[in-house]
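User:
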Amino acid sequence: MTETPAKTTGQIIFGNIFTLFNLLNFALALLILLVGSYKNLLFMGVVISNTFIGIVQELRAKKTIEKLSLLSAPAAHAVRGGEKREIATDALVLDDILVLTAGNQVPADCVIREGEVEVDESILTGESVPLAKKPGELLMSGSFLVAGTCRAAVEHVGDENYIAKLSKEAKRPRKTVSELMRSLNTIIKIVSFIIVPVGVLLFCNSYFFLDEPLDEAVVSAVAAMTGMIPEGLVLLTSVALAVGVVRLAGHKTLVQELYCMETLARVDTLCLDKTGTLTEGKMEVTAVIPIANGADVEGTMGNLLHACQDENATALALRERFPEKNDWESVYAVPFSSARKWSAACFEGRGTYAFGAPDFILRDGYESIRGEVERHASTGARVLLLAGSPQRIEGQELPADMMPLAYLLLSDKIRPEAPEVLAYFKEQGVAVKVISGDNPLTVSEVASRAGLEGADRYVDAGTLLNEEMLEKAASEYTVFGRVTPEQKRVLIRSLKKAGHTVAMTGDGVNDVLALKDADCSIAMASGSDAARQVSQLVLLSSDFSNMPRVVDEGRRVINNIERASSLFLVKTLFSFILSLCFLFIPQGYPFMPIQLTLISVVTIGIPSFFLALEPNKKRISGSFLSHVFQKALPGAVTTVTGVLTAVFAGSALGLSDEQISTICVLAAGVSGLSVLLRVCLPFEWKRFCLFLGMVFLFILGIWIGAPLFSLVALPERGMLLAGCICVGVYPFMAGIAWLLTRLRILKK
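Assistant: Predicted structure:
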């Protein structure tokens, strides 16, 4: 099969090295080299380390995804040597006989030899109405079987397949609309737009108006520009997401779209199917209750099951109770579909028999047995009706005179972990809604047994006749029964329209439309190929109990990116504001690149790496950029105030430029550590040790590394000024935060 384009190892390495920020840093390093200030090249050590870490983590995530993708990849079932075998789809050859059943994606163009099926070709044509296909007709690769079973001969392989001839771009998975991605792109665009003009203006101001030597003018301009570049921010995001992918892989979860972890962190509504999530997905026939005297239920069901050849969970449970028989001659069969909700066959000389949802089989005649059906359904059983008519079936419409023969009661087994998982989502403020094709009373009872709050608020989607009614019901009810695939899609859209971030779990073809429209789609590996193909996450163990771990990991990643990003933005903001200020102050920019490297490593680089890996289960809401900006603004304002105070007060006290620069480094460093303190609160032992470690490292740097970082000894008046600024930093920052909150610039 033709592969969808994906990042190669070379592309990952190229993409991490040749970033806009890296190119800017290399250009600035070249300027430093040209003026011979070699020690100020230290910032390139951080840039190179960042690039190396990013490459390693992304390659690690790529390897993990490829491994898990092999486990998740759909396999074809073909008849070879007279036996049905499971083979890789790219190993198919011409004239292979494929065995296809409901839920399978057609792996290659093929012609039906035996059986009749219904096919969803929406992925190819955009038409969502299933098409009936008979022997001799073509099944196109990429389409999905909605109902029925067939055997088909492979007509084309590889690039000759219909879907392979479509544009590769059309085959790409949908792109996640990511708040995080948008925010990072916004920061990159703004910084890219302002950094070069501001740097050029600073150089011109220093060289032409302040008469600084060329090397000093270049160094100060480069310092301002490197300060504005949040080079580690993109790395932090890439590493945090890559680590999240690897951690989720440890929980047997395949991440098919990287940024879906952010969506997962924002989810406030989770839509589940009953089967395979609340229940184990296995059913058993618990009772057979005859309605018509003398009805041969055993013989009828055995022949019906043989004629229809359904392969869904219900049919498998029925086969365990009613062994297949081939005593009657079948002249026409209609396999089960989620839209019809019944299977039927017409037998020579015996008429038509059907089993499935009572209300869909009897239609207007359902009222006569409604009470009995609801009585059985209230016990949590799924009620199927076996009915018959002496008339022949017309197309896909049952005869109007179908007579009830027997009730078939089936029950689902509740997953042992379901109550605990539902309790987790309740605690986390995530509303859970159950959307099922089964009888709403049955689904409600099952949900109640699983411990779902509000399970008694249920509705029959068959009574919701238009989109307006569905939209209203989406917010009013917890359990939805008798939902068609199109109605599932409308319910998901309605919840999104109401402002909710919606995750959807599913495993069947009938879930595909809703999965594609959900903000975050999660498939069970044991489900259909179709569901796995369109989902952003695949639970390879098909274990619903993994959901809390998956959600927690998404929240951990995004919360920590948000928290650590505020550290990066502080430096970018204060560097930008200071650069503008020093265009109008008759003094050179007070920092060198090597000094900013010390401040960045101690207050941003090392802390952000550890903070990005911490547990954090808080649900995400609101704008990423807004949250980060609000956390960074008080720190940036405080740093700017401290530096300007040092410059003006230092000049008034008669301090040299080197002494003022030293005080500015102390002020900026203490401001950065104060921001780190606010980020680390409330303390627990790891964050406390991190903060103390960074304070110690900063003190060690200015004490032992003074010559390297161009720091000089201060006279008594300089020590007093530095002490006053450093002592006042944290109270001033707290006051700025309070003032901005009162002015509604910041949220509480």
